[in-house]
Amino acid sequence: MNLVPLGQSDLLVTPICLGTMTFGEQVNEADSHAILSRSLERGVNFIDTAEMYAVPPKAETFQATEKIVGSWLANNPGARDKLVLATKVAGPSRGMPWIRGGSPDLTAADIIAACEGSLKRLKTDVIDLYQIHWPTRNVPMFGGLYYDPSKDHAGLTSMHAQLEALQTLVQAGKVRAIGVSNETPYGVHEFVRLAEQHGLPRIATVQNVYCLISRALENALDETLHHLDVSLLAYSPLGFGLLTGKYDVSGTSGPDAPAQGRIAKYESVRKQRWGRAESLEAARRYNALARAYGLTPTQMALAFCYTKWQVRSTIIGVTSLAQLDEDLDAWGTTLPEELLQKIDAVRWDIRDPAA
């Protein structure tokens, strides 16, 4: 894999990024360390985590993933210099009282304090890419469809003030580049405008969902990213497991569902966009299409992300070495034009059920 740049920053990363949100919940520390080591051995130089992880979020595992990554870095002192390390500050609590006491805001002081905590847990002096996990303002996300102006709240910390806090971290040498996540075209434009107008750090990346059953990004955000030179880090390329085919027969719940699948295992996940009946039905159609072309569902879903011009790096999340190898082995798979046309035809019928 050739290295690719992130936005206008000096960061160069592999087009596959190891996501870590399963570490500390579905994956224990020893197995997490093995996955991190194998990923590095196979040439992946990009790791993404977050203070909120593990997932699904809960008080008992809050910040656990960063600690696991940090203990691995401490045990492998030569690894840090080979890696681009990304993490995220959690946005407003969204019903999670263990995040800053349930505050509805993300202040400049919160950002600086959260970064200091991440540095300690990760056992590093610098975070290569520091991201705001979700917006402070009222925004439809995590499956929300509509923006409702009546839900806007005055008095929340502005994007300008958040950029000033991030500038403090960059100037202190604690952060190299910044990004956002779960953002909208407006949010990306505003972050870039404010940075350019006031001489503040420019966002290099946007980390948003992008997969066969959730392609809403192609309806405007991709144009924004292209013209503003901001790089997409695509998460959930396998649709929380729906696009692996493991739920095709059994569904996401019930006695025959794979017990360790995230959607089957966690009721909170089933209540989200991935648990919609329409999402499962759409995934089954794509999975059948993959098999008809001699591919596994995983191969097709990952190849779709790996080869799209919109995607700079695809974030893969795994629970075993076997899954990691399968995901990495899919690199280099090309999808014939006829198959891509059939994929688009399915989307025309069902649109984006997990948007």
Automatic annotation (TrEMBL):
InterPro entries according to UniProt: AKR_Detox_Biosynth (IPR050523), NAD(P)_OxRdtase_dom_sf (IPR036812), NADP_OxRdtase_dom (IPR023210)
GO molecular function: oxidoreductase activity
A Pfam match: Aldo_ket_red
UniProt domain NADP-dependent oxidoreductase: residue ranges: 15-346
Keywords: Oxidoreductase
Gene3D superfamilies on file: NADP-dependent oxidoreductase domain
Protein name: Aldo/keto reductase
Species per Swiss-Prot/TrEMBL record: Rhodoferax lacus
